[in-house]
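Section 5.1 Outputs to date
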Amino acid sequence: MELATGFEEATSSTSVNISSLVINRLYPTVDAKRINTKYGPSVLLSIRDSDEKLLQIFLPKRYANVVSDEDMEKINSRSVYLILVYKVICETTRSYLLAIDS
């Protein structure tokens, strides 16, 4: 990524809640970072929406726990092309259900 483009995206990215994503829309992954929050370690995932806008979401803990450092390295180096899909909110647990497609 060109440095100027990186700076532009860093200032124009928006942090959003998973609930604001559109169900069954495909969101290409761009970047993944492990971040320490006041709630403990989490994964901040950068994705693109349909307008090519850069969005950032925190993965729920149950998903963040299965993302390895190797997985993040592959996403960040673009050696793997993954798509995040927001499936639905579970009616019983009120949990966000996500899927990864490649």
